[in-house]
Amino acid sequence: MYELDESIVKQVLSLNTKVFADGANLENMINLNSQPYIQGLTTNPTLMKKSGVKDYEKFAKEVLEKIQDKSISFEVFSDDHEEMYDQAKKITKWGNNVYVKIPVTNSKNISSYKLIKKLSNEGIKLNVTAIFTNEQVINTFQSLDKNISSYISIFAGRIADTGIDPLPIMNNAVKLVDNSNVEIIWASPRELFNVIQCSNIGCHIITATPDIIAKLKLLNKNLDNFSLETVKMFNEDALKVGYKI
Question: Where residue 170 sits, what CATH number does that domain have?
Fold first, then answer.
């Protein structure tokens, strides 16, 4: 389902960014893990809920039975920082390829920086998520142990949804983490062009849902051919329905 022509795979792998698959459908995750252009995976409680996952730990361990060589992020779901700590300590033990997602704040808008620092200093690989501002990026980076592999997930797509250009925030973040083991994730992309934007600024990772991944086959597609295919689609659909004027 997600296999691409070899030429497209080479194009994706030549980008200055890694493509991580974002989702919570076990079959899709296993399929995407087998694709050479997918270099990691992420999920979250909302995606799991949409996919009908009932048992969080059971699902995660089923995933990890099949996916052991690529980075994969699982998120804590408590709203209490002490409970988040306990959950993170459990999640990190599920696999060597596991990164623990910690939201930048809880739902009461209490920052998670102390928790992030504590976990990072204990050597736990983190994926700090739901980040939207320069200040959050800076405070998160300052809280992380720079020698421990970690991710900072900036929700560029949601920032753009507000009419604000996310590129300055992403650029600043990429420069900030230079010469560390912290990588920046361009999260919640809205279109394939975001993958190109991500690559152009040297952002380390972009997370992509299956609908974005499906569009990778269009990379550098000839626009004249694309135009003709679009016209043919309109014509064929009109004929199928039998429209008359």
Answer: 3.20.20.70
Report the C-alpha gap between 105 and 95 in whole angstroms.
Answer: 25
* Interatomic CA distance for residues 245 and 241, integer angstroms: 13
State the pairing for strand pair 205-208/182-186.
parallel
Query: Residue 193: inside a domain, yes or no?
Result: yes
Q: Note the pLDDT tens digit of each residue in 102-120.
A: 999 999 999 999 999 999 9
pTM: 0.95
What digits encode the pLDDT tens for the residues 33-62?
999 999 999 999 999 999 999 999 999 999
Distances from the Cα of 237 to the Cαs of 75, 96, 225, 233, in angstroms? 43, 50, 18, 6
Which structural domain, as residue segments, surrounds residue 123? 6-241
CA torsion through residues 164, 179, 129, 67, sign: positive
Which positions are annotated as active-site residues? 101
* β-sheet bridge partners, residue 42: 22, 73
